[in-house]
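Dear Dr. L.,

I hope this message finds you well. Following up on our conversation about the binding site, I have prepared a predicted three-dimensional model of the protein together with iron/sulfur cluster. For your records, I am including the exact sequence and ligand specification that went into the calculation, followed by the structure tokens. Please feel free to forward this to your student if that is useful.
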Amino acid sequence: MRWNHLAENPTAAADPALFSASAVTTRTFDAPEFRGITFHEIRARSILNRVPGASQMPFEWTVNPYRGCTHACVYCFARKTHGYLDLDTGLGFDTQIVVKINAPELLRRQLAAHGWQGAHVAMGTNVDCYQRAEGRYRLMPGIIEALRDRANPFSILTKGTLILRDLPLLRQAAEVTDVGISVSVGFTDCELWRTVEPGTPSPERRLDVVRAFADSGIGCGVLMAPVIPFLGDRPDQLRATVRAIASAGASSVTPLVLHLRPGAREWFMAWLARTHPHLVGRYERLYGDGAYAPRWYQRRITRQVHELAAEFGVGPAADRGGRRGARPQPTPVPTPAPESERGTQLTLL
Ligand code: SF4
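The resulting structure of the complex is given below.
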């Protein structure tokens, strides 16, 4: 694996080494939820990552305590990044998880460094920081505490219901700084969910998270992603999804059509050929050689979702009793790779 190479040649890597070459511990756990999963514990050298091309993003810095994701979404954009560690980008991405065990202490140190000016920090824009591993490693409480103690603004995008564990801490942080929480729910179709996002909590459980944050006064946006062509884009499906998002009390809904960047594309198309072979040709025509659906298609979905959002009253104007107070925060979106994690590509939560 790439880190073995670094261990042998600690100064040879042209890229900024992600972690101390001497510190990789590999573990497995017997618990049913971790069966078949291998964890590679590392001590990272840096945890605050600058986003390349940040001018197009609403934030410039990210924190990613994990690489790989047991949520195992077949369309996940981050798959390719595993290849840079010489790990498999298919099943390996779902089952070989890199854990930066020193993330909280490192972040506390970096936030206190001379020169850090308190910029917004986005989390969950690469892989999900509330994936199952977080239940065991508990890195996020220390990370949130470090941000809270410096009153440093931050946002989290997740599919993980585990974030509810940290609600009290997030409430404390929201008292001293801007905190943006967003949950990703691209559709509410349970059959589609089981096959395309097999390791995630159900859309319904994710909407419970939205509800809890709305009730807490922090507020929660929904990244309606991905909208999956020919499988999750029928008008009745969009309608059911936006209606459920509205009824959960979301502060905003931001639609995003499926991207098929290299790495994700191969894995997704192989899945499509197995499960919906009749759609392969339609996908090839819609995406061509590119990673994105055509603009006309993206615009159509965006317009439909915005019309439904207006109809169902998603947003701060919606009357949900005590939920009006939350200040709307921008919804984090998938971001380009941080420079210090070269090889990490866009991911879609
Ligand atoms: S899309 Fe997000 S939640 Fe799904 S596997 Fe990728 S990082 Fe995890």
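In brief: The domain at 2-341 is CATH 3.20.20.70 (TIM Barrel).

With kind regards,
A. P.
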